[in-house]
Specification:
Elements (H helix, E strand, L loop, with lengths): L2 E5 L3 H13 L3 E5 L2 H11 L3 E5 L7 H11 L5 E4 L5 H9 L4 E3 L5 H11 L25 E5 L3 H12 L4 E5 L2 H10 L4 E5 L7 H10 L5 E6 L4 H9 L4 E4 L4 H14 L3
Parallel strand pairs: 1-2, 1-3, 3-4, 4-5, 6-7, 6-8, 8-9, 9-10
Helix pairs in contact: 1-6, 2-3, 7-8
């Protein structure tokens, strides 16, 4: 089994990527700091490393330099959310194997890893399987994921789909409202901070439309004023990023059970 190391200070990103690549057949290990990532790299010699560019204390470029000192040829893919052209050029100068902006889709990242490991992209299975190989029970509930960061949106959709939900994702509030008008989902997972139409405005529009389903907010904002405004519009739950995935699943289950209340 091919070993994949993921280094990202956002625990939710680590968990979601681990979930996706484990399903792709990789043995995945994760680290949430540059130093931890280096320690795991030395101890485990992964075939491929996914390395977040922006991390506190030891950023991705520093980690990449250290990896190059250990193994000049180790495949390392930089995840460069919000990176400048200068930073991308610096990463390539240190011989990053690939540089993928976090705004690109999950499919681009999976394809890059598969290409590096000389594995063809696996065809979509006709029946999803759980971690122990048992078929996943397909559920009737539908969930709409609204998040402006494509990679996070795709990861959440994949994560929920693998647990049997009918999940779809959109990257902006206006598109979300169009989908809701056409076919309202049973629950909505809504990012609070988005460009264009912010999550708080989407939430307000949902209340004006008397949307009957459950709403779970995910946000990294610590603004008490913004959070108070969100709570006043009656979401069932507000989860702070990075979100624990087990807590997210529990919140979704509770929302779906209680949506008729």
């Amino acid at each position: 089994m091919i070993k994949l190391l993921i280094v990202d200070d956002d625990q939710m990103n680590c968990d979601l990527l681990q979930n996706v690549f484990t399903r792709q057949g990789y043995h995945v290990i994760t680290a949430t700091s540059g130093q931890e990532g280096l320690d795991l790299f030395r101890a485990s010699s992964p075939r491929v490393t996914l390395l977040d560019l922006r991390m506190p204390e030891m950023d991705g470029l520093t980690v990449l330099k250290e990896i190059r000192a250990i193994d000049p040829h180790a495949p390392v893919i930089i995840l460069g959310g919000g990176a400048t052209e200068i930073q991308e050029n610096q990463a390539r100068a240190i011989r990053a194997t690939d540089f993928i902006r976090k705004g690109l889709s999950l499919d681009v990242l999976v394809e890059a890893v598969n290409r590096i490991t000389q594995l063809s992209v696996q065809p979509a299975p006709t029946q999803l399987a759980s971690g122990n190989g048992e078929p996943i029970q397909q559920l009737d509930e539908s969930i709409l994921v609204v998040d402006d960061e494509p990679l996070v949106c795709d990861l959440l959709v994949k994560f929920l789909s693998l647990r049997g939900y009918r999940a779809i994702g959109v990257k902006d509030g206006q598109e979300a409202l169009r989908i809701i008008d056409d076919r309202p989902p049973d629950a909505i997972l809504l990012d609070l901070i988005m460009p264009g139409m912010a999550g708080i405005d989407v939430l307000r529009a949902l209340r004006e439309k008397e949307y009957p389903g459950g709403i779970i907010i995910m946000t990294g904002s610590q603004s008490e004023e913004l959070l108070e405004k969100a709570w006043a519009l009656g979401p069932q739950e507000i989860l702070m990023k990075p979100v624990d995935l087990e807590r997210l699943l529990t919140a979704i289950q509770l929302v779906l059970v209680c949506r008729e209340c």
